[in-house]
Amino acid sequence: MPLEVLLTNSPWMMGLNAAEQNKVRNDIVIKKMPTDAFICRRGQLADYWYGVVSGVVKINNVSPNGKSTTLLGVAPGSWFGEGSLLKDEPRRYDAVTIRDSELALMPKATFIWLLDNSIFFNRFLISQLNKRLGQFIGAMENERLLDVDARVARSLAAMFDDWYPKQTMMLKISQEEVGQLAGLSRQRVNSAFKVLEERGLIRVCYGEIHILDIGKLSTFDSSSLDD
């Protein structure tokens, strides 16, 4: 089942004992959502921790004058939303599907119960929060210092964790959707894809992007002859 695949590939699940794993499976709710659906909205109370079973999610904010910015893209296999649960505060962002998606919703009570009972789960959350901090610092650096090709490369790489199974490092995502995540036009994303394919970092098929070298993709800089 898709949920079991998500849980099997979730590193925090491996460190739970049998009773804790059973509670997680019993408490999680699966929700299917269409494209452009709001998973949660800015200002709402944080009731769930979210896992992406399938599809793609963007963490997004809109200014009072209507200007939208994407802060992060979330690929299948990833979890998000722990910060608001830990701080017990309303969401500070919107989470929106950019294609038909399936989400695993862990209730806040279960999340807090794991926090109180599992040292392994706590260690995972520390690592996850550190990763998020690195992503946001990197996004600021990318926008200010890197060219468009590098921004596309690092936007793709940021959606995958180091532990993600190599045989499934693939995104079902269009060039237009990547443009939403990177803040670029579809035409400019297409040009960047050609550069990245020539470097052997990705392979683009219809509606799919296969990641061939996550390490080089995450550090790609077109000004460097070593990439």
From TrEMBL:
By its UniProt entry, which Pfam families does this protein fall under? cNMP_binding, HTH_Crp_2
Q: Where on the tree of life does the source sit, at the highest rank?
A: Bacteria
Gene Ontology molecular function terms on file: DNA binding; DNA-binding transcription factor activity
GO cellular component annotations, sorted alphabetically? cytosol
Keywords from the UniProt entry: DNA-binding, Transcription, Transcription regulation
Q: Where is the Cyclic nucleotide-binding domain?
A: 12-132
Instruction: List each copy of the HTH crp-type domain by range.
Output: 146-215
Q: What does the record list as coiled-coil region(s)?
A: none
What Gene3D superfamilies does the database record attribute to this sequence?
Jelly Rolls (2.60.120.10), Winged helix-like DNA-binding domain superfamily/Winged helix DNA-binding domain (1.10.10.10)
PANTHER family listed in its UniProt record:
CRP FAMILY TRANSCRIPTIONAL REGULATORY PROTEIN, DNA-BINDING TRANSCRIPTIONAL DUAL REGULATOR CRP
| This protein's name | Crp/Fnr family transcriptional regulator
Question: From which source organism is this entry?
Answer: Polynucleobacter asymbioticus
Species classification:
Bacteria, Pseudomonadati, Pseudomonadota, Betaproteobacteria, Burkholderiales
